[in-house]
Amino acid sequence: MTRRAEEDGGTDERSGGSDSLLTDRQAAVLSLRKKGLSQQEVGQILGTTRSNVSILEKRALHNVSRARATLRDWTMIQAPVSIEVPAGTDLFEVPDLVFSEADRSGIKLGIGSVDVVVQIKSKVPEALNKRVIVCDLVVAVTEDGILLVREAVPE
């Protein structure tokens, strides 16, 4: 048995079927930790060491993070409104671009201009130098009017 298989409890079975990114052991660790149990307590319940629980938890959280990023990217790809904002654009010009494109697509946003600016600042702070966008961005709007932002991927 490989060291990785041992750390995952001797199995590579996936939680909830073969499509999950979590092993059964990783799912169990996350579930017990969410209930407030310490890693030591989880280890006792699962019959393993605190160190192994730490490894399982770290890998599980990494897998969850990757899954969230994948869903965000897929949602942006599927969004009916996608706006490329080039580097050098004034941050305060972006809301007008977003609202214009959303209107053309018949999508109502439940947020205002200030909210658009705040979301950009919070989602990609490294893309800003004061009011200037320093790298190309993609701003997308879903059919439900949800705003998504990420750095543009070079083609």
What do you see in this structure?
- The protein is α+β, with helices and mostly antiparallel strands and 155 residues long.
- Helix content is 48%, strand content 12%.
- A hairpin with a 2-residue loop joins strand 2 (128-129) and strand 3.
- Helix 3 (39-46) crosses helix 4 (50-78) and helix 5 (94-104) crosses helix 6 (113-123).
- The model is unreliable at 1-6 (pLDDT under 50).
Please give a handful of descriptors for the protein shown.
2 domains, two-stranded antiparallel sheet, 12% strand, disordered N terminus, 6 helices, alpha+beta
Reconstruct the topology from this structure.
Blueprint lengths: L2 H5 L16 H11 L4 H8 L3 H29 L2 E5 L8 H11 L8 H11 L4 E2 L2 E2 L3 E5 L5 E5 L4
Antiparallel strand pairs: 1-4, 2-3, 4-5
Helix pairs in contact: 2-4, 3-4, 5-6
Determine the fraction of residues in helical runs and give it as a percent range: 40-55%
Please trace the helix and strand order, writing H or E for each element: HHHHEHHEEEE
The overall number of domains is: 2
Structural class: alpha+beta
Give the overall average pLDDT: 89
Distance between the termini: 42 Å
Largest sheet report: 3 strands, antiparallel
Structural shape: elongated
Computed over alpha carbons, the radius of gyration is 21 Å
The spatial strand order of the largest sheet comes to 1-4-5
Secondary structure tally, helices: 6
Estimate the strand proportion: 5-15%
Ranges where pLDDT stays below 50 over 5 or more residues in a row are: 1-6
> What is the number of E strands?
5
